Amino acid sequence: MEVIIRARGIGRGSGTGALLVTDAPLSFLGGVDPETGVVIDPDHPLHGRSVAGRVLAFPHGKGSTVGSYVIYGLARNGVAPAAIVNTEAEAIIAAGALIAGIPLVDRPERPIGELPDGAPATVDAGAGDIRVGDP
Amino acid sequence: MQLDPDDERILAGEFGETRQQMMELLVGLGTVYGAERFVPIASAQVSGASYKTIGEWGLEWLSSLDARAVVPAVLNPVGMDLERWQEMGIDPAFAKKQEQVVAVYRRLGIRLECTCTPYYLSLTGYGDHLAWSESSAVCYANSAIGARTNREGGPTALAAALVGKTPYYGLHLVENRKPTVVVRVEGAPPSPDAGWYGALGVIAGRQVGSRIPFFSGIRPTRDGLKSLGAAMAATGAVALFHVDRITPEARVFSYDLGGLEAITVGSDEVAAAWSGIPVDAVAIGCPHCSGEELGLIASLLEGKRVTKPLYVFAARRVIREHPREVAVIERSGARVYADTCMVVSPAFERYGAVMTSSGKASVYLPSLCGGAARLGTVEECVAEATS
Questions:
Q1: What CA–CA distance (Å, rounded) separates B238 from B156?
Q2: Which of A3, B104, B223, B345 could bridge to B62 as Cys pair (CB 3.0-4.6 Å)?
Q3: Backbone φ/ψ region at B268: left (φ over 0), alpha (ψ -120 to 50), beta
Q4: For A72-103, what is each residue's pLDDT tens digit?
Q5: In 10 A of CB B2, how many CB atoms?
Q6: Could you say which of 3.40.50.11810, 3.10.20.600, 3.40.190.10, 3.50.30.10 is the CATH number of the domain covering A3-132?
């Protein structure tokens, strides 16, 4: 069964992976290792988890604007998220996702806390939706 | 967002991959912030210039691009004086990486004036739309000049430089530029030095956060405005402020201040920012010095010798245009460097404590260089370096 959640698309392209959901904002600079894709911020709830290939859902970015380049580094190393879902995107995440070619949507019509962690999902930035579950 | 036919063609990739990616970045930014259209920009100032901050992945992304800036664009300060880095004691391995970053920006048509004071280089006027990155430059352009810019990140400022436009939102819109908090300064000295305004900015920035303050009780010069804004952008996230009867928009518009929260800052609080800790070096020029400031430092150093390292930072063009002042400063044993500053250069990691006239640098030095910072006026800084 597939649930379609409308959202605002930023950029283009689509990506599929298992949902990785957190209610904590994320700083990529110093927060995620660009070589491995593992969250290295010891204070973050996702500490020790890998974002590689996941549909990563978090409220919004924070920290240094250099975080955009860390997102690019994740993509170059093949350990980037398959897609990103934000409650409210801002410039660090948007710029990073756009230069790294990662599909990004924000303002989903349902709160990200209701997204089922671990479930398969497809984010389509062009269409502006998230499809959760098996089609 | 509403795009004109040329923008649509860029977005479709008709002008190459780089311009397409830049247009995607700008449209993405406009989408995030609800811009309805673009606005042409007069100039861009691009951050992400020091190898110390952007690292290997930033350099790789920049190296992948192939286009030329279509508006005047300058770089933010880098980690070293590009001509005198050896004299600064910069590690050759770092210098090599830094030179690679600079070479990439040169290829992209960004002028290698590496400065946080681009307003001294190209005419920036009231009402001009800009895409600038560095927080103190953004604050000065908006506040002291009345130009209009949001605080851009490195990639979006570069995209604006290569496309010549930026999304029309935020501080580009007059209705978003009204004061949102009042700051009353009590007991300001008759004609305070820029160092005093830096200390005021450190205190005020903590209280106003990202709001737009309207100041009364002060009459800063342009250098005072520069120092005040830089410090508020460091301790808060101030990108625009107004000063009663001084800044251009405060003179053009009559703002209704009734109903706004009012904060009072006393001169005793500002004085408390001063300390007497011993220091290993002295640094002036964050933001980069104006010609007037170089003149003041030269007059204070005339006929003296420094007894501890004294660094002065300014834009290369400002240095070239003031050869007499620079010669006097260097004759004392002090050094005037371009392209860099005490906040972005690894050269300052070797000092335990540094004295500065910059409120902004006093905030960043402890975390960036691992040392302590002591704040003073320009006069006190020169006295410390020659004592």
A1: 19
A2: B104
A3: alpha
A4: 999 999 999 999 999 999 999 999 999 999 99
A5: 10
A6: 3.50.30.10
Nearest to B247, CA basis, from B276, B221, B267: B221
The CA distance from A95 to B103, in Å, is 23
Contact A106 B21 (CB under 8 A): no
Phi, psi of A84, deg, nearest 5 = -125, 135
Whether residues B266 and B288 fall in one domain: no
- pLDDT digits over B67-122, tens only? 999 999 999 999 999 999 999 999 999 999 999 999 999 999 999 999 999 999 98
User: Is A64 annotated in the active site?
Assistant: yes
Instruction: List, in order, residues 6 or more apart from A122 with CB less than 8 Å away.
Output: A14, A15, A16, A55, A83, A130, A131
Q: Which helix (H) or strand (E) holds A18?
A: strand A14-21
Give the whole-angstrom CA distance, residue B16 versus residue B71.
18
Q: Which pLDDT band holds residue B370 (cuts at 50, 70, 90)?
A: low
Question: What is the distance in angstroms between the Cα of A100 and the nearest Cα belonging to chain B?
Answer: 9
Question: Among B111, B145, B174, where does a domain finish?
Answer: B174
**CA pair distance B22, A126, nearest whole angstrom:** 17
Whether B233 has a pLDDT exceeding 70, the answer reads: yes
Residues of B in contact with A73 (CB under 8 A): 55-57, 60
Report the C-alpha gap between B271 and B380 in whole angstroms.
Answer: 13
Q: Domain span at residue B297?
A: 281-386
Domain boundaries in chain A? Answer: 3-132
- Please tell me the pTM assigned to this model: 0.93
Q: Which among B21, B29, B47 has the least Cβ separation from residue A91?
A: B29
Interchain contact, A10 vs B28, CB within 8 Å: yes
Per-residue pLDDT band at B336 (split at 50, 70, 90): very high
Select the residue from A79, A98, A107 to test the B interface by mutation, using most B Cβ atoms within 10 A.
A98
Candidates A14, A27, A64, A68; catalytic one: A64
For A59, the token pair is: 């409220």
For residue B251, is pLDDT > 70? yes
Give the residue on B whose Cα is nearest the Cα of A69. Answer: B58
pLDDT band, very low/low/confident/very high, at A3 (cuts 50, 70, 90): very high
Query: Which chain A residue lies closest to B150 (C-alpha atoms)?
Result: A91
**Which of B21, B24, B54 is nearest residue A69 as measured by Cβ atoms?**
B54
Give the closest-approach CA distance of B54 to chain A in angstroms: 6
Give the best residue of A99, A102, A106, A107 to mutate against chain B (max B CB count within 10 A). A99
Residue of B20, B24, B32, B33 best to disrupt the A interface, most CBs of A under 10 A: B32
Q: What number is the average pLDDT over the span B219-240? A: 95
Residues B153, B241, single domain; the answer is: no
- How far apart are the C-alpha atoms of B167 and B150, rounded to whole Å? 10
